[in-house]
Amino acid sequence: MNPLIVKAVVIAIMVLSYGFSLLVSLLNITHRRPGIDASLADFVDAEKYQRLLSYNNEKSRLALWEGLASFAVLLVFLLLDGPGRLDSALANLLPYQKLRAILFFGILALASGMASLPFSLYHDFSLEARYGFNTKTLGIYISDTIKGMILGALFGGGILYLLLLCIDVFGAQFWFIFAIILFVITLAVSSLYTTLILPLFNKLTPLEDGELKTAIQALAEKTSFPLSGIYVMNASKRSKKSNAFFSGLGRFKKIVLFDTLIEKHPVDEIVAVLAHEVGHYKKHHVPYSSLLSALSIFVTMAVFSLLVHSRSLSLAFGAADTQVHINLLAFFLLYEPLSLLMNIGTNIISRRFEYQADAYAGQAASAESASRALKRLFADNLSDLYPHPLYVFVNYSHPPLLARLGALKSKSQNKK
Ligand SMILES: [Zn+2]
């Protein structure tokens, strides 16, 4: 096929896909927000509600500008045959194809990081700082960025190397073998995350004996949750926002509480938050999510296998001949609409899981504590109370607050 037509098709697909996300974001920004809901009167007063509105508005606008800037840069890069030019420059330096491919993506990742740097700095040190969230110093920001880059280079470079190796060794079957390898890597990383990766960024200390620990242990016993440790994470060194999660596969579950959560919430609310996490475990959401991610990895790799050796795709991106890594880049761009659809699918399932976990928390703790915990979390984090329904449908992995409160209320009324 004529490379120019291929290029036009790739760019048309990118524009359509970006246009759709932009439209959804614009709908969300201009969506009319009614006054504060009566059920939140204890947590959000008129002044705080104004702050909440302007915080979410500023945040959405910043994301919009960042998206627009990165889309424009990418478009210019493609129109000027950037991928092909960069690759031929590298080919003169490095004769080894795999190393060249890793360097190629490394340079692109670095460039995209540089392009988003001003937005990220503005986000942390202006926006989040003005609303009283940011506690990060510039030193922490720099060390986080460097650590993130090293991890990205190790994992990204390693995975890319494995992919290229599979293509060489297994020929047409490469996608299947590589999909299995990639799935095993994601499982390993998610199960070792708290032990290996989190400590690079945060300090985890075992929760001290006391009322909270006793209450959490009582919950674990009541729900026969295989708890192997409760840790407090010093999240306050970066932000005042709060959260909690559990991690680990099989019989070794660790609960991690943000220190900010402990500081702001009474014991019964923290227990309700954890009961929600136990609910995810009891309803087998973790294996279901792993299954979903396996499915998405296999679909992705199967589609990639159709394009991996396409000569016209390489030519369309400015290369002189077929280059697997250039086709990989083209594939990422072409894949955007399909991955958008897959994300919508996973978000639908994820929101259902959240309702189920909430319902479980309502039973195992109490619906009243669970609702109060949610209200306080949303109010403290200034979360948007009235996102546009289409924006929620596309982007939200968790249902909005009022929907969750409504579901908790109707569940507890049904019980009575
Ligand atoms: Zn959840």
Describe this structure in words.
The protein is built from 15 helices and 4 strands. Helix content is 74%, strand content 5%. The chain binds zinc ion. The site of zinc ion (ZN) has 4 residues, from helix 9 and helix 12.
**Major beta sheet summary:** 4 strands, mixed
For the secondary structure, the number of strands is: 4
What is the overall pLDDT average?
Answer: 93
Going across the biggest sheet, name each strand in turn: 1-2-4-3
Indicate the low-confidence ranges by residue numbers. Answer: none
User: Helical residue percent?
Assistant: over 70%
Order of helices and strands: HHHHHHEHEEEHHHHHHHH
List cofactors, ions and other ligands: zinc ion
Rg over alpha carbons: 24 Å
**Individual helix count:** 15
Give the CA-based shape: globular
Separation of the first and last Cα atoms: 67 Å
Broad structural category = mainly alpha
Residues in β-strands, percent: under 5%
Set down the secondary structure blueprint.
Layout: H1 3-30, H2 46-79, H3 82-93, H4 97-130, H5 138-170, H6 174-201, E1 204-206, H7 211-222, E2 227-233, E3 244-247, E4 253-258, H8 259-264, H9 267-282, H10 285-307, H11 311-316, H12 324-364, H13 367-380, H14 389-395, H15 401-415
Parallel strand pairs: 2-4
Antiparallel strand pairs: 1-2, 3-4
Bound molecules: zinc ion.
